[in-house]
Amino acid sequence: MTAVFEDKVVVSTAKTKYETKISAGKHSWIADEPASKEGTDLGPMPTELLASSLGACTSITVRMYADKKEYPLDSVEVHVTIDKRSAEDHQFTRVVNLSGNLSTDQRERLLAVANACPVHKLLSGKIEIETNLG
């Protein structure tokens, strides 16, 4: 099954070291490498962008569910780290902080919802990357 995206992500790097311009639809941002890796440190590293995708998806998914169920969730904050165990073995670790007058059952349900966010499912499943020259 092939997914069809309305807006694709476009990424370009010119001669400004590793400063990389990214756009998706009407949005744009920058990725880069830190000065310690000869970058210009104008934006997050690609691995930080990947971690932020998981964190944002988790946070949004939890917020949507809590709103739908009218849970007293004041805020959700997600901390994500990537542990590179070897060249082909990595582990994402998320810490989900929930603020609000939530019951134990509500907190446990929101944790389960966090594990069902679309980016979590994508990263947990089989991933294939097809690369072509344009």
Describe the structure.
This protein is α+β, with helices and mostly antiparallel strands. Helices cover 31% and strands 31% of the residues. The strands form two sheets. Strands 1-2-3 form a three-stranded antiparallel beta sheet, with no helix packed on it. Strands 4-5 form a two-stranded antiparallel ribbon. Strand 1 and strand 2 form a beta hairpin. The radius of gyration is 18 Å and the shape is elongated. The two termini are 23 Å apart.
* Quaternary state of the chains: single chain
Helix content: 25-40%
Question: How would you classify the helix and strand content by structural class?
Answer: alpha+beta
Straight-line N-to-C gap:
23 Å
Strand content: 25-35%
Largest sheet, order of strands side by side? 1-2-3
Radius of gyration: 18 Å
What's the total count of β strands? Answer: 5
Uncertain spans: none
Question: Rough shape?
Answer: elongated
Largest sheet: 3 strands, antiparallel
By DSSP (H or I, 4+ residues per run), the number of helices equals 3
Task: Give average pLDDT, whole number.
Answer: 92
Top keywords for this entry?
3 helices, alpha+beta, 134 residues
Summarize the structure.
The chain has 134 residues and is of the alpha+beta class.
Break the fold down into its secondary structure elements and pairings:
Elements: E1 9-13, E2 20-24, E3 27-31, H1 46-69, E4 73-86, E5 89-100, H2 104-114, H3 118-124
Antiparallel strand pairs: 1-2, 2-3, 4-5
Helix pairs in contact: 1-2
